[in-house]
Amino acid sequence: MRNLVQQSPMVLVLAFKRRLGMMFGTVGNCDVWNCWMRACYISRHSPSGFCTLEITAKVKEGNVEISRGREATKGFWLAATDKSGTLTPFNFSRRETGDEDVTLKILYCGVCHSDLHVLKNELGVTSYPVVPGHEIAGVATKVGKNVTKFKVGDRVGVGVLVGSCKTCECCQQDLENYCPQITFTYNSLNPDGTKTYGGYSDMIVVDQRYVLQFPHNLPLDAGAPLLCAGITVYSPMKYYGMTKAGKHLGVAGLGGLGHVAVKIAKAFGLKVTVISSSPQKESEAINRLGADSFLVSSDPAKMKSAIGSMDYIIDTVSAAHPLLPLLSLLKVNGKLVTVGLPNKPLELPVFPLVFGRKLVGGSDVGGMKETQEMLDFCAKHDIAADIELIRIDEINTAMERLAKSDVRYRFVIDVANSLSQ
Amino acid sequence: MAKPPEEEHPIKAFGWAARDTSGHLSPFNISRRASGEEDVRFKVLYCGICHSDLHSIKNEWGFSKYPLVPGHEIVGEVTEVGSKVEKVKVGDKVGVGCMVGACHNCDSCANDLENYCPKLILTYNGIYYDGTMTYGGYSDSMVANQRYIVRIPDGFPLDSAAPLLCAGITVYSPLKYFGLGEHGKHIAIVGLGGLGHVAVKFAKAMGCKVTVISTSPNKKAEAFEHLGADSFLVSRDQAELQAAMGTFDGIIDTVSAGHPIMPLLGLLKSHGKLIMVGAPSEPLEIPVFSLLIGRKTVAGSGIGGMKETQEMIDFAAKHNIKADIEVIPMDYVNKAMERLEKADVRYRFVIDIGNTLAATKP
């Protein structure tokens, strides 16, 4: 507490407010009401003239220990401080490169729809300040002494997770993404209680287990979105057995996830139908992405004619929507896998499941081994995302456009070139 | 003009039918077709009362055609076989379940999944190939294509075998298909009624650790001592549910009333499966997040194909799995339906057709 007081009068105010029990949001699963002080702060008045964000709190249940941050490399990032979701630049520092760590200079970071949800606290789990970004591509600039998989200069990436327990059944089966103690790349807690901050930044330090190797022919900018969007659709295709050549896959929604799903599915030899409420996407879907057909979900006659025609459906739609029309499209034993994140429960009619032995499953990104496999697969089949490169200072406008789905199909922040200007 | 049911076919038969949505059952004359070369005719000895019978006689699903003779858990003794029948002979004990026909041409039929054929013909309240209504097992005789005849193993008591022809296959099939009926798996059975009690027995025989989840704490002793369940959760007890979170490989949900499934999803381990075999008429609310975090699935299953139904009966005979039944005379059937509606039965009524139906002829 004393150290923080010396740093900024703002901290005192915040600490005092905390004492009075005012809530500044939750930090992971720690109920702030149980903390007698929160020592994570933002000051716009530090002597250096830069905005300084220093992570100094160790937040434990019912208690808060204050310690100095492990300052090492100074860096830069974009953070949002409230649910307006407006991103503003800050300088900061990340931890030192540990023995198992890889330090990346970030060149590109994809803008995922999850970033938008979290910025605006639409899922109710955001702890501000938040630095999003989990489609990170760059170059290794430093590696810890135990790191064998990577060397300085390697083209590398970081996706949705940066930590897990490494000992549970899921971790042992290369399913770190389902570990109950997963650490997400941003808006999450490290085991030491510090927060994670994502790739809207110029550098990041990550345990080698959670770093991916970019194949030499996979471009960093168009490959970055694969680290979330790509694995999100690749993993369920493998797990739910949706890769048998000649089978018929429906892809519901043609956005960041959907367009990559079409490309990967075609590479598996599937017949692909895009299911979308936007008729104007048809030409794009068929002529450019290679889909075999296009179904307008708001056209009852077209939907009726396609009843019982699909072996599988990947549902990428994140808005709330009825499942019954999609279930009707499935054949007997058909599988509907949902990878979008509607913020309301969906209605699931049971009769179509029972009378067709149909299945609705979820899937959430993929483990590290499978993510690497996905990158290699995409490189082999010349698959990358369709992107619109933006500068750092265009991020808030991009977020507004993303909220209206006005992007074909992923924004990617050109970090390196933005910073150099 | 359509012929009345008792004149549609050459062989006279007698049963009980519901005439309207009151569901009241009463004596009714019907007729059965002459035996074709693939047909097996049998004298009905017992017929189980399935909850579907209750839904159907009251037209709760909206597609009942009256007069309706229910019953699709039918066992009896063969009296006649067609010239091409090799599966069974006169005197054999046989059964018929939920279906008596299908297209035999589609992918499902080719894979021994007649139950998923889009042209499935139900044992009752269906339309047969010749355009006539099908009448079920609340009657003195049945005739069915040999493909839809199940052999009852020698020595297996017929009365307690009858419910397996619907309830048994309804739970056996998903235990096998979804990989839940494997040694060491931890399975929960939601609902302890006609389906649920048989599910416990099958799952135990397959080597699973079995937990019963029920709203009724008074079923606990029964579940442990009689059915062999390993544990019991009262679904309204939040503390018990909380303690069991993330412990189940699979859940078979036999409850047909609408109910929240989010607590059930929470009980699953990651990669766990929730299989619906009851069919609530209202949609369930499914929080998608609960499926994503843990890669969980919700699926449905409806009875099983003929090959699997035979496999199920043979498995049941081998492991001495019988339904727990209350045998009733034919004229008790309306009272039984009232009690069934209140779930006041342990766990299946079975009508003693052979000994009590004839006496009810007017």
From TrEMBL, chain A:
GO terms for biological process: lignin biosynthetic process. Keywords: Metal-binding, Oxidoreductase, Zinc. One of its GO terms (molecular function) is zinc ion binding. It comes from the Eukaryota. Coiled coil: none annotated. The keyword Aminoacyl-tRNA synthetase does not apply. PROSITE patterns: ADH_ZINC (PS00059). Transmembrane segments: none annotated. Its cofactor is Zn(2+). Residues 85-413 form the Enoyl reductase (ER) domain. Homodimer. Belongs to the zinc-containing alcohol dehydrogenase family. This is Cinnamyl alcohol dehydrogenase 2. It comes from Hibiscus syriacus (Rose of Sharon).
UniProtKB/TrEMBL annotation, chain B:
Homodimer. Keywords: Lignin biosynthesis, Metal-binding, NADP, Oxidoreductase, Zinc. This is cinnamyl-alcohol dehydrogenase. It comes from the Eukaryota. Pfam families: ADH_N, ADH_zinc_N. Gene3D superfamilies: Medium-chain alcohol dehydrogenases, catalytic domain, NAD(P)-binding Rossmann-like Domain. It catalyses: (E)-cinnamyl alcohol + NADP(+) = (E)-cinnamaldehyde + NADPH + H(+). It comes from Hibiscus syriacus. Its EC number is 1.1.1.195. Residues 20-351 form the Enoyl reductase (ER) domain. The keyword Cytoplasm does not apply. InterPro entries: ADH-like_C, ADH-like_N, ADH_Zn_CS, CAD-like, ER, GroES-like_sf, NAD(P)-bd_dom_sf. One of its GO terms (biological process) is lignin biosynthetic process. SMART domains: PKS_ER. Its cofactor is Zn(2+). The keyword Cytoplasm does not apply. Transmembrane segments: none annotated. Pathway: Aromatic compound metabolism; phenylpropanoid biosynthesis. GO terms for molecular function: cinnamyl-alcohol dehydrogenase activity; zinc ion binding.
